[in-house]
Amino acid sequence: MFQKLQQKWGVSHRQFWIIFIVFGLTGTTTAILTRYVTAWLGMDASSFWVWKLLVRLGMLVFGYQFILLGYGALLGQWAFFWKYEALLLRKLGFLSQQTMANRQSPTANHQHPKPKTQLAIFASGAGSNAQKIIEHFKNHPSVRVALVVCNKPGAGVLQIASENGIPYLLIEKERFFRGDTYLPVLKEYGINFIVLAGFLWKVPAALIEAYPQKILNIHPALLPKYGGKGMYGMHVHEAVIAAGEKQSGITIHYVNEHFDEGAPVFQAVCTIDEKDTPETLAQKIHLLEHAHFPIEIEKIVS
Ligand code: GRF
Could you count the other beta carbons within 10 Å of the beta carbon of residue 247? Predict the structure, then answer.
């Protein structure tokens, strides 16, 4: 259950536990403060229950959110909790549906002439692969990571983008699946190659047509096995272990209109021991991904 939640939030293991602690501290602090506030307002057992309820609701709706942000900031998770609050406000209709976050002018970080390859990383998870790709191409003479595209507010990859001064685009499902809605933004950032690194939505045909043989995906198994709809994240490793496979690995492939079916360009294999669990296999796969994905991208774009 924890792992699913971690995936949903798109954060690292460490971040996940810190976030958990923040929620715990916030709940306890809100409960204690509520008691103080009701006492300060002179409320006791004989007070009219509606007033007590209103105070408690006020603390829950407003106090809780501020305390959450406070603890979040204290424990270094401001970005996660700020996005969490923004999402809440958007759901409640207090904020408009915003698609561009930390938007910079596409030329803002262009101290150098435009490189030959302007990469966009599409990712919506913790972003460990995105991180490796960004590190690999830092100061690269002909490849620049120019944009991170993400569909999950609060995903770890957004923090990674911010820390590295890379603009990111937060996309919305309905607009994305309309097909070419986001093309102008990609063009504006001069994107001429796309890598999917933990991006779970199917890429619409219009985007594939606009970037023929220029969209790569990484899959955490040896395709064609363990691919297709629903085969993502831990589901893949659980299926591999359940089938008693002796090896698994990674596949880097071009993207076509079907999940995980585009032409493969690279595979790397790891062995599965009897004591391996989906979790330990996931770690092995991540190591393979980090070692190979940036290098394979470089080979292809060069
Ligand atoms: C990777 O395992 C990748 O193969 C899959 O999604 C995962 C993303 O992990 N497509 P991370 O967010 O890069 O850590």
Answer: 10
